[in-house]
Amino acid sequence: MNAWIDVAAADDWPSGTCKVADHHGLPIAVFNLQGRFYATDNICTHEYAELCGGAIEGEEIVCPWHGARFSIPTGKVNSAPAYEDLKTYPVRVEGGMVQVDAEG
Ligand code: FES
């Protein structure tokens, strides 16, 4: 079952930034990479840092606590100290609104 939730208008969303969508307490990070949108869990798989507060470098998000790197498009962990990948979620743009499927 899909659970598309609105995140923000695509036009007002600068490239290279992320926003957090909350789905019943599940925080999802949604990223704009040059007009392409991706979504992953917002919580680092190492400890409990909120990834949306980290730096976006190219197509990677860098954890603000201990520097683990994850691929934003795939959720794959690219460097320690995290070893587990992030879950990813489908994203679409409907009528100019970026939406994430929180159960996808
Ligand atoms: S909490 Fe993210 S690397 Fe430690």
TrEMBL record:
<keyword id="KW-0001">2Fe-2S</keyword>
<dbReference type="InterPro" id="IPR017941">
    <property type="entry name" value="Rieske_2Fe-2S"/>
</dbReference>
<dbReference type="InterPro" id="IPR036922">
    <property type="entry name" value="Rieske_2Fe-2S_sf"/>
</dbReference>
<dbReference type="GO" id="GO:0051537">
    <property type="term" value="F:2 iron, 2 sulfur cluster binding"/>
</dbReference>
<keyword id="KW-0479">Metal-binding</keyword>
<feature type="domain" description="Rieske">
    <location>
        <begin position="5"/>
        <end position="100"/>
    </location>
</feature>
<dbReference type="Pfam" id="PF00355">
    <property type="entry name" value="Rieske"/>
</dbReference>
<keyword id="KW-0411">Iron-sulfur</keyword>
<protein>
    <submittedName>
        <fullName>Nitrite reductase</fullName>
    </submittedName>
</protein>
<dbReference type="GO" id="GO:0046872">
    <property type="term" value="F:metal ion binding"/>
</dbReference>
<keyword id="KW-0408">Iron</keyword>
